[in-house]
Structure formats: C-alpha cells, structure tokens
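Before a computer can learn anything about folding, someone has to put a protein's shape into writing. The outcome of that step, for a single protein, is printed below:
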Amino acid sequence: MAPFNTITQSQNVGTIEIAGFETDLTAKYEWLSAHLRYTYLDRVLKNRPGVLLFGVPKNKIDFDIQAELGRGFFGQASLSYRGMQRTSDIGTGNPIQDYALVGLKAGWQSQSGYAIEVAATNLFDTYYEYDAGYPGEGRSVSLTLRYQF
C-alpha cells in the first residue's frame, strides 16, 4: 500500500466557459469615504460533464469605510465576504463554507512624515478555509510605525 491515502495529479481540464463582471464604487463626502467592490464569476466546464471546477467563489464582496477625523487622525472599518467555493481535495468538489471577515484600523499621520496605525484583522476570529484542511488566519492585531522622507 502506498504511504498516502490518495495521490492526485494536476491536468488540463479542457474547454471552460467563463462569464462574470466586476464593479468598484467609491463615494466621498467631506471627511467620510466608502468603497464597495463586487465580483461575480460563473465558470462551466463544457466538455467534461460531472467534473467540478474549484478554487474560486462565484461571489466576492469587499466594503470599507474610512473617516478622516482631523489633525491627522483616521479610522477605518472593512468587511470582506467570500461565497461558497468547491474544494480541490481529490477532485470531489466538496463545498467550502462561505465566510465574512471584519477588520478595524485607526491611526495618525503627522505633517512631517511620521505615522502610527493599530489594526485588527478577522476581528471576530472567524474560522474559515481557503481549501479543505487549509484554515485561514485567525484574529490578528498589529501596530505599525512609519516614517516617510
């Protein structure tokens, strides 16, 4: 018996029909700005019925809103959604659950080029997978100090 449960091999899949669209909307009003990005992607394997395509969700949404609070201070909130996608795990096409991640960032930038930011990604510590058995990053918090000259 082989030392692995299953051995797979990558191969060309044949003819794929791809249709979709992307949109990016930006709004700004005085000290507040917002960005909304949406992607829809539909892929169909034409010459191999029953074989599933994997690795990319049909729906993807990113939204962020930023406030310029004066005197160099700012705050930002973001939401990132990825729709259900099929796993590449031995070609079975098992679904990977959709997920949404929330992030927050706040900071200050001086007129002389100094900046400081504190950020939290995956704020609610959502469990998600990029592919079967490959979990995404949990909650993280960062502090950034920067100088531009």
Observations:
- Residues 26 and 35 are 5 Å apart (CA to CA).
- The mean pLDDT is 89.
- The chain has no helices and eleven strands.
